[in-house]
Specification:
Blueprint (H helix, E strand, L loop, with lengths): L3 H38 L22 H10 L3 H34 L5 H13 L6 H10 L7 H8 L2 H14 L2 H9 L4 H12 L1 H17 L2 H6 L18 H18 L4 H6 L1
Helix pairs in contact: 3-6, 3-7, 3-10, 4-7, 7-10, 10-12
Length: 275
């Protein structure tokens, strides 16, 4: 036994070294494209940088002031307006989508009514259809009601997300307890109070997961804003032509992920019981 323990420890040590080496290599491959984005934002010419990759991140100190001025200059009025419009559309769409999808999933799970199965199947069919199929009809509808150049026309379609409803419906099926709801009803709680204080905490992991996808999808959408928002001051950041700081493109989705990732691994029923 004494001769086997060092061998096992040696294998574990080698395994850790290999794991750390692969993690560092993959981390570098993921971070390297962002380095190129930052270099472009600061106006650094890659050809003027030393060919040594170790010096790729260390430009001359005398040029740092000029690089910073180039970065600040790139934040012109149209870029800041586009950033503001994108934040309004993405944040509002995510909030409304999460709440409406959660309450729809709850209605499909908790209540018995005639068309529940039909609606459940209809949602599944709509999920299978590509979203671009409805673009032409939606544009005609927006044009008919004279709603071009309205940010709300980007928010309304995002609220009704069949994928999010289906995900929360499947999630709620495995975690929903009628006993908790019936106990709350006996105590005199109304349906909206039950949903807001019991079901929403129960859905925290599902909401956190889907909020990341909804925000990122809405934030990165280029096609729909390009045809709905014609005026420049109404356009979102991805739809603005020209050299906008790339840092603004990936920073908000990254912050959303860092903020919501804890809900993905959070306890499911523990949160609802505590509340």
């Amino acid at each position: 036994m004494s001769t086997g323990i060092p061998a096992i420890k040696r294998k574990e040590f080698i395994f850790k070294i290999v794991t750390y080496a692969i993690s560092v290599a993959l981390g570098y491959l993921m971070i390297y494209p962002f380095i190129g984005l930052l270099i472009g934002d600061f106006g650094i010419d890659p050809e003027s940088v030393n060919q040594d990759r170790m010096l790729y991140l260390m430009p001359e100190f005398n040029n740092l002031v000029q690089y910073w001025k180039n970065f600040i200059f790139s934040f012109n009025s149209s870029v800041l307006t586009g950033f503001k419009n994108s934040m309004i559309v993405s944040c509002t769409s995510t909030i409304f989508c999460m709440y409406c999808s959660a309450i729809t999933a709850y209605a499909l799970t908790a209540y018995e009514w005639k068309l529940r199965q039909a609606l459940d199947k209809a949602i599944l069919i709509i999920v299978m259809l590509p979203s671009t199929v409805a673009i032409v009809g939606y544009y005609q509808l927006v044009w008919k009601f004279h709603m071009i150049n309205r940010l709300s026309m980007l928010i309304f379609p995002a609220i009704a997300s069949p994928v999010t409803i289906l995900f929360m419906r499947l999630y709620l099926k495995s975690t929903f307890s009628k006993e908790i709801v019936e106990s709350a009803r006996i105590d005199g709680a109304g349906e909206f109070r039950i949903f807001n204080q019991i079901i929403l905490p129960l859905l925290k992991p599902a909401i956190g997961t889907q909020a990341i996808f909804v925000f990122s999808t809405t934030w990165n959408d280029v096609f729909v804003p390009s045809i709905i928002l014609i005026r420049t001051e109404k356009r979102t950041l991805p739809a603005i032509t020209g050299s906008a700081p790339q840092l603004l493109y990936f920073l908000p989705p990254l912050l959303i992920f860092l903020f919501l990732q804890r809900y993905i691994v959070e306890g499911i029923t523990l949160g609802s019981v505590k509340n």
